[in-house]
Task: structure prediction
Amino acid sequence: MLSDIEIAQAAKMQPITQVAEKLGLTPDEIIPYGRYKAKLDHKLIHSARPDGKLILVTAISPTPAGEGKTTTSVGLADAMNALGKQTMLCLREPSLGPVFGIKGGAAGGGYAQVVPMEDINLHFTGDLHAIGTANNLLAAMIDNSIQQGNPLNIDPRRIPWKRCVDMNDRQLRFIVDGMGGKANGTPREDGFDITVASEIMAIFCLATDLADLRERLARIVCAYTYEGAPVTAGELGAAGAMTALLKDAIDPNLVQTLENNPAILHGGPFANIAHGCNSVIATKLSMKLADYVVTEAGFGADLGAEKFLDIKCRMAGLNPDAVVLVATIRALKHHGGCAKAELSTPNAALVRKGGANLARHIDNLKNQFGLPVCVAINAFPTDTVEEMEVIRQICAEAGVPCALSDVFAKGGEGGKALAEAVLSILEHKPLQFTYPLEATLPEKIEAVAKKIYRADAVRYAPAAQKTLAELAALGYGNLPICIAKTQYSFSDDATLLAAPEHFTMNVREVRLSAGAGFVVVICGNIMTMPGLPRHPAAMDIDCDANGKITGLF
Result:
């Protein structure tokens, strides 16, 4: 059996100019990055062409290995193209942290991948590096302002802005810098987030053009004065240079699937610590270039889909025409209490028990958000007919269709049944948000916790409670919320599997993302800088004398 990278390296890619031609693009409208990658002018979102239909792919609460959401998205787009439906795939860019850590890349798998896979999973077109550099420029300018007489009266003890790096590195979560005497800065506590958790990434993915990007960057609250007043990136004079660093990155990236269908990858916030979906520009551009757009939101629907709908769709005026909910037999057995070593052993009873997780996600998407839903059963060789029948029964009880997805093994051909099921439910239903913006920040937090997670109550740490009150006093109470929590459970406790009830959500910390336009609510023990596992994926990756990469999945 070939590995993902061996399948990708054997692919017969088309020149990116040919891929662009399928979208009706002229050579003047694309900026090639070599033969198989290109940037597209973001101004193309202003085309007069009617918007295509938007299909959101999300998933049940995942296991640590992921449940094939990206693979399903790629295969579904290929299948719809094979059925004669002009379809664009629209995904996030991978972060180097997971690539070298435990989860792997974000280019799909098997015969449902986007290529060139190695480029996409490594440095790609440099977007994430540009985002990290813009973030760190602001950090440097904050400390420089303090060093140069502190004209803005910044309190070094109240600088929420962290530096960032696109790598899992727990050693950098909490640091002390500015050591070595007066010439080397002001000693203070500091820290790093992973780049995809930076507010710059969120801003990048929510901006609609360069002017909007600059305005959002200027609004970033990066420090506070001794009197407690917010200090913005605009007041520091950093917004213009940060925009300059991002002016090329803001153009979406065009690549192709293994079946030579067009795909846009742009932006990459994590859904457990950020809002978890690709850029607004990429989504809107895709909808101008194709009749159908398949996009995804990270991790389970309680995280990625909730934020996609309550934050991105609200801000950008988007409304999905269908939602695909990816489920696997293995994950449902895991939620039913199956030991890891037994996941390949048939056990329909545990699938039924873990199916409570699937049923709750369906209920949220269908009844809380009011959207048409189809379940995709991502197939594994160890799945049995009896176990699949359990999923079909859960879907029938919930009143939604389901279809087997065998795209990992068969590419677009293995996704035709799913594509037909999705096409059968496409309907423009008004999106129902979880909360109104006029609600207070605590009311919004409780709305998500109770309506989506099904918590009984929310408990706030004293520091979090104080920050919520301060943000309301400063005029930020009307912003949406972005909850950061474990992806493995509806709760903030990763051990509470399936569909837990009668639990309390614990809010540890609250952070303002004024430029992005939301408030981050950090729950439980979730970290915005991950660490590497005992055996990082990096240990298995190599490159030979000819530049051929091995071990990259």
